[in-house]
Amino acid sequence: MNDERLVVSAMFDKSTVSGRGRTIRYLAVEVRTTDRPKPEKTRLPLNIALVVDASTSMAGAPMRAAKRAAAGVVNLLKSSDRLSLISFANDVQVHLQGVKQNARGRDRALDAIDAIEHRLYTNISGGWLKGAEAVAATMEMQPDAHNHVVLLSDGHANHGILDPLIIRNHAQQLRLRSLNTSTVGIGNNYSATLLQELAEFGGGRMHDAEHPAEIIGVLMGELYELANTYVDDIALRLRLPEGCQVENISGFPTTSGTTELIAHLGALPPAACRTCIFRITAPASDSLRYPFSAPALVARADEDDIDDDDVDEDEDANANEEEDEDENEDENSEDDHSGKDDHSGRVLTFHISASGKCAGTGRLTASQRIKADLTYSPSSSQQRDKETSFKVAQVWHASVVKQAAELNRLGKTRRLKQVLDHEIKFFSRYCHELPEARALVLELELLRRNAGQDWHERVRKEMQLTSTKFLTTTTDFRPFDRQTWWERLEDEQRKKKS
């Protein structure tokens, strides 16, 4: 029996395409969780591991703040929850493993937190994997719990596994076993790339604490998210029509094949929403080998309720995979109207669904499947849906900002300028009829003017963090009265000129 907790809706920014092919359209898909059917007296028990960086750089205020934050977590846990506590430096120390947080267990936890001392080096992978091992060992004793590792670090790994791709693979495998990972970066010197990989592919969230005093607020926010998880390991599936090229421009880990793309959206509380934007390149209509149904311009319920197994697999296996031969063609140009037969009325149908695991029980929950259609038309006079287009612009902007921060960090100035020149060209055209998106264009132009400079690491971290939070529609638990990344960048440039 399906415990239906997910609802999917979808809308194209513009639902007609040219018969010539290479028309770009954007599909916005929203995945929502339903509200709880009735108030629940108790939340699901938590099985969490706090993994704390105890390297030399954490000495002093950062370590004191981390200890206060960990103690705050202990004081909020219930007697049904289990806590593991790990610290790492050049070695990895297990201070607690799966201890129930009754009165006695709470006292043990607080004593263990107080006893953590800083040491040499930073073995992030060793600490994280040991935390995952502690949570996994406890899963057998409490199978209905929500299982999570929360890692706090202020530095770069210099011991253990250093390759982010290997870390990513481990995180994915643990997520598939219902063991998720979230991370908290402390200060300006932590490895944003590594902590982001752990969180994104581990099914959790990445947080930032610029100042030691912010650690406790961030950690309390993460604990609140864990305690209120309703659906875990959400997978959004987009079944593709023949010949279409699809790119996920949101910040979710994505796997794809010839006929299906899957975006991994992580966890959601009740009555929450997550949005994913796909950039779709439609094929030429004369390259398609079979007739299509009558057009439908908005996403609709899958009325014929065809199962995946009923679809002709030969059509999927032989899908047209033509390469884009003209990279210089305007990807957002209007359709060409040469008067030739463009097979008007043919439809490209996308099948969309979402599934996940009910928190605590692990039971599968799945949405109803819907369809979204693109219709071949000789006319490009159809107006874009303004609301959907602005969502697209926001996500597109965030993805460019995030990429720019990493290119600047790597010192790839030439590549950064190329990326910004290309993106601003097409992004400004897309936003031409969206006055509310003008500020987004100006921000990208600010980056381009300063692309030759080495930005402060805090500017880059704010760029990545705010972009990731927006792309993944997750919460920033830091104080709101802080400068934006563009304000910081402008201040930095004024100081250099003065």
- Net shape: globular
Low-confidence stretches: 290-341
Total E-strand runs? 18
Total count of helical runs of at least 4 residues: 12
Description:
The chain has 498 residues and is α/β, with parallel strands linked by helices. It has three domains: 169 residues, Sandwich (Immunoglobulin-like), CATH 2.60.40.1510; 182 residues, Rossmann fold; 111 residues, no CATH class. It is 34% helix and 25% strand. Strands 2, 10, 12, 13, 15, 16, 17 and 18 form an eight-stranded mixed beta sheet that branches. Strands 6-5-4-7-8-9 form a six-stranded mixed beta sheet, with helices on both faces. A hairpin with a 3-residue loop joins strand 12 and strand 13.
Topology, pairings included?
Blueprint: E1 6-12, E2 16-17, E3 23-33, E4 46-53, H1 61-76, E5 82-88, E6 92-100, H2 103-115, H3 124-139, E7 146-153, H4 164-176, E8 180-186, H5 192-201, E9 203-209, H6 215-227, E10 231-239, E11 245-248, E12 254-256, E13 260-268, E14 273-282, E15 300-301, H7 313-317, E16 347-358, E17 364-366, E18 370-376, H8 386-409, H9 413-430, H10 438-449, H11 457-471, H12 485-497
Parallel strand pairs: 2-18, 4-5, 4-7, 7-8, 8-9
Antiparallel strand pairs: 1-3, 3-14, 5-6, 10-13, 10-16, 11-14, 12-13, 15-18, 16-17, 16-18
Helix pairs in contact: 1-2, 1-6, 4-5, 8-9, 8-10, 8-11, 9-10, 11-12
What labels would you give this structure?
498 residues, alpha/beta, Immunoglobulin-like, Rossmann fold, eight-stranded mixed sheet, six-stranded mixed sheet, 12 helices, 18 strands
